Write the structure tokens for this entry.
Amino acid sequence: MKILDRYILTSYLKTFLSVFIILMLIFILQTIWLYIKELAGKDLDIIVIVKFLVYFMPKLIPLVLPLTILLASIMVFGSFAENYEFAAMKSTGISLQRAMSGLSIFIVGLGILTFLFSNNVIPWAELKSYNLRRNIAKLKPAMLLAEGQFNEVGTYNIKFIDKYGDRDQFLKDVTIHVKGNDGRTNATVIKSKTGELASEKDSNVLKLILLDGYYYSDLSPKKTKEKEKKPFVKSSFEKKVINIDLSKLNEVNFDDESQTDKYNMLNIVGLNTTIDSLVKRSEVDHRAFSKNLHQRSGFTRFNRNSIRPVKNKKISKPDSVQYSGNLLDIYKTKDKIELVDFATKSLKSSKQIITSKDSTVKSAKAWLNRHIISFHEKFALGFACIILFFVGAPLGALIRKGGIGLPMVIAILLFLTYHFIGIFATNSAKSDGFNPILASWFSTLVMLPLGFFLTKRATADRGLFEGQGILEPLKKVFGIKQASTDPDESKYDVSSKEYETLNAYDNNKLINIIKNYREYDYSITYKNTALSVLNNRGITNQQLKFAGHFTNQKFEEAFRLRNRFTEDSQLAFILYIIFAVLSLTGRILENNGYECIGNPLFIFGVLVGVLYFFALIRSFISSSIFNKHVGKESLTGSIVFILIGLPAYFLVYLYEKKKVDKSLHLTD
């Protein structure tokens, strides 16, 4: 391994591990917050909690690892470009592909390792975590009695409207369903106005005191006629005490793993076997259903010999295939009625069978699709890691920005795009609205052309957004392309009084105004007017700069960057308005029955939305460069810019425009 490859790999690994650990901690905290209700009040041992977290950590890898690779790639290669390390490499004849080659081997190896991990470790973790959650849910359910819903505690289903008191021990409007001997039927209903949980917190007996209520109990007579009357016993009470034994419920084996056949608990061998079994079962069910449908139609029991075509001279050869008249005309009226009645009954019966079978078929198809998606996601995850590297690395080289700020925002945007595309595709595939194989690879395939585009652009040493891009012509179309971005070429009026006054001054006094116009409290227009007088006298701006008469170079650069941001933000604002109007109008028309107009408008609005997304990114980059130049760069501001800018850019536009103008004034 050469020194350059070792240096790049070492830099990347340091950033990769740091980002991975930080993101993993964030997602673990999010997991704890998500499942805190299942863990709270259970008096769990610390070992059980540690097991819970350990089992959930591998399931976070499909989220953490792609984001880590994308963010680390942007940060490392952005830092190389920002510190001119890529420029030094190129000066020695080392291209971007050569700089990425050693790291590419590492990423490919990481992709293979990710596949092995998703095929072996993640199913194991899913098995362990799922069964552990089921076992925890059985433990001390009395501690988690929630208001407004039925809480199952042994053979009791307890519901109450509200609970209050210093220990939430008093209940209001209590309803209890008691299961029968079969464990399923609600044989008894108890209702009371108030109740109280009188048992101790650590007790194995849940003592429930009910006040002022009624007791309803179903009877089960032996005679069928008596059962049809649905008899029950009703009694009232002023006070009733119910003791529920929780000792058996709390005797939970946390190592019980009775559930082992869920699709995300299987490796590719198990998934392949299960998919074959499900396909064969589906074929058998279809054949059995078609046979049942044929038998239930009554066609096999229909006596065709009892109905004969009538002999009529007007109808020649009624049994001929060339007959094109009304088929019922060849039968007697009595036979017509019988045929129509038979067909109507057969259609109703068939429709009922198909309707009842429809939900079963959809459920079986969705279950099969989940297995297919899980099978292909194991392969897609490894490829996604490789492709996201080839998106992040050239993107970092193009934006020339390392650190946490801008790379973090861009990485989150790209990852959210990748992640939500995958979620929408898989959700559609689960409901059989999208091909399950394509759904597993869809988000990866969307990122693939972006990786090719960015790599090609970075290799050619071209900027991410250049003048020949589609956004620059749009600026000219909307009339927001400024003729100049130099503050020294601001417009002035030669017929103004200021011009006449300054034209009477000698060159030294005009130069003094240009150098010290802020001390004299002159405006930038007044300074530029003095500059134009000198230009008309043959003294160029270049000569003044070499002579040191332009002292505020930082302001001039800030002015240029401000103008660039103004152009980019105005374009993003215009595209945002067009996108919002077209897409909303299209949806409204489509929902009101005007699909022929609404659909094209909505599709065109989405295309404009894509342009708006890129214009937003460019506006954000321009804002970030300006803020860095004037020393106002902020990570929080960058995140707020993107999060609010996507749905409500008009707010960001007004705020950023005011902030940039204020920063420019302070620089001046």
Q: What stands out?
A: The mean pLDDT is 76. The radius of gyration is 38 Å.
